[in-house]
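Page 37, continued from 36.
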């Protein structure tokens, strides 16, 4: 069946090959590049970019080679509101957000998909490394590049209007195919880090938005062991950069309290949690269940996978890990899997350690 497909083209090799594959499959494909900044020169370029003038030009050249129409959509206001401001607000609240996940949710698969459907397109195609089989989102065959974690927030309806042409191949195969097709981006380095923080200095970016008010760093007994210049510069599980000269044992960030601008540190074992509460769950691979079921859960992008039991309770996702995990930060996503199938996603709101069961 021939579909009208809007191919989101970032200017990288993955989205270029995805658009080419969609066109080769016989679909009526139009390429679109998203302008996400009113000042693209301030965004990362070269190996670190995805939203710059350079990337827009690369996307246009790729569309010309493929032979498809190409447009640029100005999404700067939506991106600033839904991604940048959300990023700042989350850190201000003591949480650790994932801006790439939020961009996929609010921009690429909400604002763009809504506009595409309104314009008569049947689907949006992207270069994400994931698979769709039998209407369910699955991990890519290239686990090193798998992006199911950052797409697990999508609803079943959004997934039904999405095409992911690259899920059945590795990144090396994508680059080789781009070279065969004559796409100049074949050897273009992957984008990394946060596109809207040009120099990579997240703490400096947040200081500019939130200020740099000093506050105490305390241990688990409440004793002051140091000072910081802004609690938002820290994240749960962080060890480096605490500047606790004279500390005998390694200490890690255990919690961040923005109300009193306090960072609490302690030993690694104090980071261990085995119960996670997720808010705003999205069930896109199975129906919600109040009866616990076995699954695995991923708690950060490209992070370790943990065996667990999960259930829905009062509109929240409750996850009980079989073994404790460390460094689990509120604001990140918890994504449930059945083998390689995405079952559900939720934003981590709280964590705890269950009381040991007496023998």
């Amino acid at each position: 069946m021939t579909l009208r497909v809007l191919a989101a083209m970032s200017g990288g090799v993955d989205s270029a090959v995805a658009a080419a594959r969609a066109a080769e499959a016989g679909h009526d494909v139009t390429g679109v590049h998203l302008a996400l900044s009113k000042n693209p020169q301030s965004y990362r370029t070269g190996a670190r970019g995805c939203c710059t003038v350079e990337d827009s030009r690369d996307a246009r050249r790729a569309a010309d080679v493929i032979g498809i129409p190409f447009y640029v959509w100005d999404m700067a206001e939506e991106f600033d509101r839904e991604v940048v401001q959300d990023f700042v607000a989350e850190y201000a609240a003591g949480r650790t957000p994932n801006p790439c996940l939020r961009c996929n949710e609010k921009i690429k698969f909400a604002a763009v998909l809504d506009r595409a459907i309104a314009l008569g397109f049947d689907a949006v195609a992207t270069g994400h490394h994931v698979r769709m089989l039998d209407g369910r989102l699955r991990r890519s065959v290239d686990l090193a590049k798998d992006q199911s974690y950052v797409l697990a927030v999508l609803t079943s309806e959004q997934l039904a209007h999405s095409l992911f042409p690259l899920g059945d191949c590795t990144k090396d195969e994508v680059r080789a195919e781009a070279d065969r097709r004559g796409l100049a981006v074949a050897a273009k380095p992957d984008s990394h880090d946060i596109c809207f923080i040009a120099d990579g200095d997240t703490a400096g970016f947040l200081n500019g938005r939130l200020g740099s008010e000093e506050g105490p760093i305390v241990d688990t007994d409440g004793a002051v062991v140091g000072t910081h210049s802004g609690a938002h510069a820290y994240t749960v599980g962080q060890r480096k950069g605490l500047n606790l000269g004279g500390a005998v044992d390694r200490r890690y960030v255990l919690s961040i309290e923005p109300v009193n601008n306090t960072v609490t540190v302690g030993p690694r074992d104090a980071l261990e949690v085995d119960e996670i509460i997720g808010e705003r769950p999205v069930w896109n691979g199975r129906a919600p269940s109040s009866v616990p079921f076995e699954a695995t859960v991923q708690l950060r992008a490209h992070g370790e996978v943990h065996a667990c039991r999960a259930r829905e309770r009062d509109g929240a996702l409750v996850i009980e890990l079989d073994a404790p995990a460390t460094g689990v930060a509120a604001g990140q996503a918890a994504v449930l899997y059945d083998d390689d199938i995405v079952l559900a996603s939720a934003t981590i709101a709280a964590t705890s350690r269950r009381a040991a069961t007496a023998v």
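The radius of gyration is 22 Å. Flag for discussion at group meeting. DSSP finds eight helices and 17 strands in the chain.
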